[in-house]
Design a protein that fits this description.
With about 350 residues, this protein is of the alpha/beta class. The protein has helices spanning about 35-40, 50-65, 70-85, 95-105, 115-145, 170-180, 195-205, 220-225, 250-260, 290-295, 335-345, and strands at about 5-10, 15, 30, 150-155, 185-190, 210-215, 230-235, 235-240, 245, 265, 275, 295, 300, 315, 325, 330. It is built from eleven helices and 16 strands. A hairpin with a 4-residue loop joins strand 8 (about 235-240) and strand 9. Helix 1 (about 35-40) packs antiparallel against helix 2 (about 50-65), helix 2 packs parallel to helix 4 (about 95-105) and helix 2 packs antiparallel against helix 5. It binds 5-S-methyl-1-O-phosphono-5-thio-D-ribulose. 5-S-methyl-1-O-phosphono-5-thio-D-ribulose binds near residues 163, 235, 236 and 312.
Length: about 350
């Protein structure tokens, strides 16, 4: 058990560590309404695909707990509104829609307001608990791909802070370390939001896992010098053909990995695989405020009016991906049949 947590259902409210303040301050924020949860997703208090799915599920549970509705139709109308509000927070990570669909299915059941409220709280906690188990399973499959003595590059934060606990890409790394392998992680700082610097290096350093922080532009040099043997990243949405959206800069790492003949792996739970998204071209990419690039935490590092391009994610084509590590094993090309089989949908009819 680590000494911090990402998100927790606390009986009648939701508590989250404020990731915007890390690594300098460990502050937990209390959320009493779904609107507060939605605001925290939008403003990056919590981020990372599985974590925002969990937050959305807990947001729906909060909508029920904080409701004054006395009839099921009235409660369901409020839940619908909460679902729409939470869905509108961030567009790329499909775990958000996935978790809300799960909660919506539960909202159809229940024969009293009290019973439905209880069922929604239970479901939100189940989403959390299952995510813990999924990360461990995914870590076991991926950990086997790392050898003793390896250097491993990742990007952004796909660790405990991006999920319930343990992590996807960092779960793979943690599993290798737990198996006794010595390794070193190279973490690009991940401009402009610095998830690599602020979150990944914090998580790993705190746990005593050797980590070297680099600027994003140093990745090619690290690969050229033979300091890493493989790359493992997370994902926000995996199209059914294997194209994977992840933090901006990921695609560049995949191209560099190909040039340097290094395997490039994506680690993601199956809730990140979207059978309704055919290829990466169909993945909606979030564009964030230009001021994120013009400076950091209110300190300007560029002219105030300079034109900025700020996509939060990019898409790595499946041909650059050696394998997609999920809780059910490592999917390899051709990805569509492999991913459909893991999702329990045989052929394309299951879409
Ligand atoms: O903008 P963020 O910080 O939410 O982006 C997060 C990422 O891109 C992660 O790599 C991804 O969600 C995988 S997290 C297990």
């Amino acid at each position: 058990m680590s000494s911090y947590y990402t998100i927790r259902w606390a009986g009648d409210h939701v508590s989250m560590i404020d990731q915007r303040r890390l690594p300098t301050e460990e502050l937990y924020l209390r959320h009493d309404t779904w609107q507060e949860v939605a605001h925290s997703i939008e403003t990056m208090v919590i981020r990372g695909a599985p974590a925002i799915g969990i937050a959305a599920a807990m947001g729906i549970a909060l909508a029920a707990v904080s409701s004054r509705a006395t009839t099921l139709p009235a409660l369901r109308a409020e839940l619908d509104e909460a679902g729409r509000g939470l869905l509108a927070t961030r567009p790329t990570a499909v775990n958000l829609a996935w978790a809300l669909r799960r909660m919506a299915a539960v909202a159809e059941r229940g024969d009293s307001v009290e019973a439905l409220t209880r069922a929604l709280v239970d479901e939100a906690q189940a989403v959390y608990n299952e995510d813990v188990a999924i990360n461990r399973a995914l870590g076991r499959h991926g950990g086997a791909l790392i050898d003793d003595g390896d250097g491993v590059m990742t990007i952004c934060n796909a660790g405990s802070l991006a999920v319930s606990e343990y992590g996807t890409a960092l779960g793979v790394i943690r599993a290798a370390v737990e198996a006794g392998k010595r390794l070193r992680v190279f973490a690009p700082e991940t401009r402009p939001f610095l998830q690599g610097a602020r979150l990944t290096s914090w998580e790993l350093h705190r746990e005593g896992i050797p980590v070297t922080l680099i600027t994003d532009g140093m990745a090619a040099t690290v690969m050229a010098r033979g300091l890493v043997r493989l790359i493992v990243v997370g994902a926000d949405r995996v199209a059914i053909n294997g194209d994977a959206a992840n933090k901006i800069g990921t695609y560049g790492l995949a191209v560099l990995a190909k040039y340097h003949h290094l395997p490039f792996y994506v680690a993601a739970p199956l809730s990140t695989v979207d059978p309704a998204t055919s290829t990466g071209a169909d993945i909606p990419i979030e564009y964030r405020h230009p001021d994120e690039v013009r400076g950091f935490r209110g300190e300007r590092t560029a002219p105030a009016e300079v034109e900025v391009f700020n996509p939060a994610f990019d898409v790595t084509p499946s041909e650059l991906i050696a394998g997609i590590i999920t809780e059910r094993g490592v999917a390899r090309a051709p990805f569509e049949p492999a991913l459909l089989a893991m999702l329990g949908k045989v052929g394309t009819a299951g879409r």
